[in-house]
Amino acid sequence: MPPLPCEKTCFGLVIDGRMSKFINSMANDADQQLKVVSIHGFGCLGKTMVARVLYNKIGRQFHCRAFIRVSKKPNMKRLFCDILSQIQRKQPQASQAVSDELRITAENIRNYLHGKGI
């Protein structure tokens, strides 16, 4: 069987036919159910780049979106603030106690997303 054609992205990443077919199936999926795509593997294989391509290719069809990277020991305050600032497209307010700020930020995310098609 001949190999599927490849496509080069704006990031210089070459996506083979199987990955291109997968990305297109995700982009053209009319099902509004929440989906999670996990990308895992050894370091320096391009996982973040593949995730970024997928995010850019299908993310435009959503009212709000966020691209975050999570380490083994994530800074939850920064993680929540990054999500909130991306979905609201503005910087979150600071100057509150850390535990209260996490709770309030999580509530803000929940309130902002309530009733939105995600």
From TrEMBL:
PANTHER family: NB-ARC DOMAIN-CONTAINING PROTEIN (PTHR19338:SF25), TRANSLOCASE OF INNER MITOCHONDRIAL MEMBRANE 13 HOMOLOG (PTHR19338). This is NB-ARC domain-containing protein. It comes from the Eukaryota. It comes from Triticum turgidum subsp. durum. InterPro entries: NB-ARC (IPR002182), P-loop_NTPase (IPR027417). Residues 19-116 form the NB-ARC domain. One of its GO terms (molecular function) is ADP binding. Pfam families: NB-ARC (PF00931).
